[in-house]
Design brief:
about 425 residues; alpha/beta; TIM Barrel; 8-stranded parallel barrel; two-stranded parallel ribbon; binds 3-hydroxy-3-carboxy-adipic acid; binds copper (II) ion; DRE_TIM_HCS_fun_bact; metal ion binding; LeuA/HCS_post-cat; homocitrate synthase activity
Length: about 425
């Protein structure tokens, strides 16, 4: 039995924005909301996810599973259409080095990057794996300079220039990023970025390592940086305060070019791939639909969730089990008439379908009527109203499953309409 949809066979209408809305976003010439690239870091940032049982002692294989799995995930990411795949540093462990090599040899469309600390040994190991690009990172906030690596900004800049020169000589792309950018001294940060830009990096990155930034802070920093460097700007937002998707959107509005995403990550992760895609398919539908294989999102998220033995959260945008479920009678009625009333995203774009629940006390007769039609039962509106009252009565007493409501409908039909059976 399929319990889906309920749109009376209607085509999903185009979700156009209301021209009269005062909230309609206005993009200026720097905005990249319809022209961005995704650096997918589930195979690097995601490896820092707690359940991935990647303890520092063992530094085991990708996701703590077999190397096959890392390969499978990389292929799935590639087929989804992400522009870059970022992998764990090859110096993390022997297996990490091998995984980098293996994934580089798959001939994927996506460019393969690895993420290393700012020093020459790490940079050399990265080059040895055959990656297309190297993402360099070092902490620049006073917290990290004092309590982590203990280096001065002068040292950071000098080392950055040496390592960048080496990597350029090896013919790989270079990105230079600062950890904890939002708690770093702005003047220090800008002069460092100006220097690495002049040295010829492809991208500079800013990272909200602790997840404390707001969209407005992001907009201001990216806008300022946009005026200082010529190269692309990559952004990386942790989700500790729930702003990671909004921050990525604000960054693109301010002129950032690349967004880091991950389906898992350190603590509660960074901008999630699926939620980011959900945001962007609404902002820039043509760009997103033409570039990414949206119908693969669910399988991709399931693959990753299974690999680390977790469930996709119930309220996940798009793929959460109730993302397209409509329950309240008042919503159901409108949805059945026109899905855009209560949906900003079309489930069909993702190969999914909406579900109108009728098994509750808050259902309404329009939703029930649509289920009656789906089941091929013939009833008058009056009869549908009557059976709706019965469903609500029962649902007041105990939770109902879809099967329960279906059998109520069938029995009612048999008794009231066909005049046989017992209700
Ligand atoms: C970390 C590092 C990082 C790096 C981001 C970047 C962060 O695990 O702390 O290279 O841009 O969040 O700062 O993921
Ligand atoms: Cu991070």
């Amino acid at each position: 039995m399929s319990a889906t949809n309920g749109t009376n066979g209607q085509q999903h209408p185009v979700r156009s924005r209301s021209a009269s809305s005062p909230y309609q976003s206005v993009q200026d010439y720097l905005s990249n909301v319809a022209n961005f690239k995704i650096i997918e870091s589930t195979l690097r940032e995601g490896e820092q996810f707690a359940n991935a049982f990647f303890d520092t002692e063992t530094k085991v294989k990708m996701y703590g599973l077999n190397p096959d799995c890392a390969e499978k995930s990389a292929k799935a990411l590639d087929s989804f259409g992400v522009d870059f795949i970022e992998l764990t540093s090859p110096v993390a462990s022997e297996q990490s080095f091998k995984d980098c090599r293996t994934i580089c040899s798959l001939g994927l469309k996506a460019k393969i990057l690895t993420h290393v600390r700012l020093n020459m040994e790490d940079a050399k190991a990265a080059v040895a794996t055959g990656v297309d690009g190297v993402d360099l990172v070092i902490g620049t906030s006073s917290f990290l300079r004092e309590f982590s690596h203990g280096k001065s900004m002068t040292y950071v800049q000098k080392t950055a220039l040496e390592v960048i020169e080496y990597l350029k000589g090896e013919g790989v792309q270079v990105r230079f990023s600062s950890e904890d950018s939002f708690r770093s001294d702005l003047v220090d940060l800008l002069s460092l970025y100006k220097a690495v830009d002049t040295a010829g990096v492809q991208r500079v990155g800013i990272a909200d390592t602790v997840g404390g930034a707001t969209p407005r802070m992001v907009y201001d920093l990216v806008r300022t940086l946009r005026g200082v460097v010529q190269c692309d700007i990559e952004t990386h937002f942790h989700d500790d305060t729930g702003c990671a998707v909004a921050n990525a959107h604000a960054a693109l509005e301010a002129g950032a070019t690349h967004v880091d995403t991950s389906m898992l990550g350190e603590r509660n992760g960074i901008t999630p791939l699926g939620a980011f895609i959900a945001r962007m398919v609404v902002t820039a539908p043509d760009y997103v639909k033409s570039k990414y294989n949206l119908k693969e999102l669910k399988a991709l998220e399931t693959l990753v969730a299974d690999a680390v033995q977790i469930n996709i959260p119930f309220n996940n945008p798009v793929t959460g089990f109730c993302a397209f479920t409509h329950k309240a009678g008042i919503h159901a009625k409108a949805i059945l008439n026109n899905p855009s009333t209560y949906e900003i995203i079309n489930p069909e774009d993702f190969g999914l379908s909406r579900y109108v629940s009728i098994s509750s006390r808050i259902t309404g007769w329009n939703a029930v009527k649509s289920r009656v039609d789906q089941l091929g039962l013939k009833m008058s509106d009056e009869q549908v109203k009557e059976v709706t009252a019965k469903i609500k009565q029962l649902a007041d007493i105990r939770p109902l499953a879809i099967d329960d409501t279906d059998s109520i409908l069938r029995s009612f039909h048999a008794e009231q309409v066909e005049g046989c059976g017992s209700y």
